Amino acid sequence: MDDPADLRAAEAAAAIVAAGRRLGAHRLVAGCDGNLSIRLGPATLAITPAGRRKDELDPADVVTVGLLAGARAPVTAAPAGGHAPRPASRPSSDLAVHRAAYAARPGAGAVAHAHPPAVLGCLLAGLVPDAAVLPEAQAVLGRVAHVPALPFGSAAVAAAVAAALGDPEVGAVLLDRHGALAVGRTLDEAVDRLEVVELLCATWLAAHAAGRDPRRRPCARVPGAASRSPTPSRRRP
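RE: above sequence
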């Protein structure tokens, strides 16, 4: 009988591969940027490898590592087709940030990080969008937090992301000069939030280009909008 842990890891790897292709199809990643992970249990997570395009991954490329800091060594990955096991790839350089996100948000099952163009455009222009101006964005994201420019993958940025996610209303974090990170109960939900953050930032940039400040005319909350949220704000992972 198959080991349930192995089945869970295989399902997570397949989900990560599919999410990477989705990010690529929507042009939310370029080159080798971005990273994705899924919490496998109380002690491990599956994460994308370093230095690889996220829209061209194979399930055997996904790395399983310890969830706690210091448990860095990846397990051995076996490619499909019954071939001999091979050493797993090196995990993403943002591994510490993913670990910090899971520690800060116990209900999160997945983390997605990318460098979407409108997100970077807003950050480089010194603009931090407020999800409250778009009712649908607020329903999906809750609040969007902002972290100042810090060395990517560092303990400092990991701590800043953890502090931001300590607010249960925050569904996504803008990382100055480094894109956006979103959490979700599932990887699909985390990627949904990345897409909505990019839409919010693109809309914000367009409003500013037209000479408008989106905060000057906040949208009224749409009755029932919260019911369409993937996660009720008080229980946001």
